[in-house]
Amino acid sequence: xxxxxxFGPFEATxxxxxxxxxxxxxxxxxxVYTCHSLHLxxxxxxxxxxxxxxxxxxxxxxxxxxxxxxxxxxxxQVTPPPRLCPPREQAELGTITSIQxxxxxxxxxxxxxxxxxxxxxxxxxxxxxxxxxxxxEGVIGSVVFEVDDGDFVKTADFxxxxxxxxxxxxLLPSSLLVAGSRRVVRVTxxxxxxxxxxxxxxxxxxLQIEDPLVVDDVVYVADIGSRSNVTTTLxxxxxxxxxxxxxxxVLEAQVxxxxxxxxxxxxxxxxxxxxxxxxxxVTAGEEPLFLPGHYxxxxxxxxxxxxxGSHGAPKTVEFDIVAxxxx
Length: 327
Known about the structure:
The chain is mainly β. The protein has strands at 32-33, 38-47, 53-62, 78-79, 95-103, 108-112, 118-122, 130-137, 142-147, 152-156, 161-162, 182-190, 203-210, 214-224, 227-233, 238-241, 250-256, 261-266, 271-275, 280-283, 293-304, 308-311, 315-322.
């Protein structure tokens, strides 16, 4: 079944049911070519329904119809004269046309380097799931994202070329693009895969994601003697004596900004609790957090419920819990 038949550049739409099938490309010549080889460049560009592009290039050398080249071959003895361009030693490298900051959950382009290479955005304007993609033109083997002078390097070999990566059905959020982050990203196309071959022109963008998620304070709330719901700031070096409390001990994160949930992590996450409703608290009896001992508590605000979306800067505090027998 012929998909298309054309001379020169052409476009063809292929039934997706034929995906992963084998295709045969044929070409015809006419006349007698006695002293010429035929050098073909075949470029394929596939575009799926989501607009994602994949480029392939093949270089083929043949000797079409005619005598084998030998000493008796005389230059110019061709009927009819060939109308072939000289072979190119190297295919022209494509370019990066723009860098885009995208909200992968909403499928929206939030910022585009064609308008400005300074990307300033508030996290509250987004779903919290962000990625950076390189829009390209022409034949490109790979794209390298260099973040903050090489502190992090990501190479993308397939379109869509992105910092955070992609699955077949969607882009993935980048863990580097979170609340409060400032990133300088240099994006360079290469002719070969894995950042190999010839480099093209680099495009640099600066991202500033403002942090509307802030843990202002961590406090503990309890009845102390005859006083009810006494709130005390939990600072580094605080000691809580359980014998002095006449109610359950409650830790609370006091936050500001558009917070959807708060994650409490103890000793690097050995104990973890998430509260998705304000006030954001963890209570003795619900978690094995309030036994006597030394604790390092990390409190992390998130944009969405269940500690999902993007997070703000964590607040860490060290404290001790003792019983009456301890001093």
